[in-house]
Write a structure and sequence with these properties.
Order of helices and strands: HHEEHHHH
Number of strands: 2
Distance between the termini: 17 Å
Strand order of the largest sheet: 1-2
Shape: rod-shaped
Number of helices: 6
Number of domains: 2
Amino acid sequence: MTKEQLEQYTSIKEEIKELEAELDKRKSPVSDIVTGSMEDYPYTQHSITIQGLSSDTYSLDLKLTYKKIQLEQQRAEIENFLDSVQDSKIRRIIRLKYIKGNTWKRTAFILGWHDEQIPRKKLERFLSKYEMYENTDV
């Protein structure tokens, strides 16, 4: 897991919400009124309301759904990474900064530090060790 991936978490959550809203909006059917006539004599004309989905809706819905699934997988990957972190302080730093979206200063304050560099440096050291471990053939 990289810092860049963690930084994407909040944006990923927001994009998922946007895609869900778009998909919900697109589910509303379109309707139109056409004229038709009775099947039998006197063949009187009358209005008929037809409803359905727009023809371009299906392919766009598939694209939006596929994108939503990809984003949900990325979000789950970040959450699984967070669950796998053994160090409670590091977990809290990640949760406060990237999941809850606090600033470094606010994160440091919540954790009882008066310098925003402390949580930032702790996380940088942790991630560099994690990346080194991840890149070794075990």
